[in-house]
Amino acid sequence: MAIEYRVNAPVTADQFIELLNASTLGERRPVDDRACMAGMISNSNLTVSAWEGDTLVGISRCVTDFHYACYLSDLAVHKGYQKMGIGKKLQALTQQQLGPRCKLILIAAPGAADYYSPLGYSHSERCWVLEPGAFLGNAG
Description:
Layout: E1 4-7, H1 13-22, H2 34-42, E2 46-52, E3 55-64, E4 69-77, H3 86-96, E5 103-105, H4 113-116
Parallel strand pairs: 4-5
Antiparallel strand pairs: 1-2, 2-3, 3-4
């Protein structure tokens, strides 16, 4: 099995949905909302993908300024391809696309929290999430 890695290669919404469903991320993403999924993949400005032939088996999907912050929105590897180093390689290739001062930032899936520390990530309790429709104070 030869895995090919590609930077910013086209990924269709259907390929993205299929991969998320074949990984653990499908449970936590709006995979039943194809328009949302299409927007997620098309508006990412950095993707690194892993392919076996024409089959998408892994992805690192990011939104970044390339200089200071890179939010790694999705790191997904097909269950049949996990524990082969694909996720680590995706992260390393993602980091190679970034400037020397750029931080890689992510929110870990509940079952993956122990995965990131051995890779060099530091844990932060400073993350805040505002859900759609939540109160924004006196913003206007």
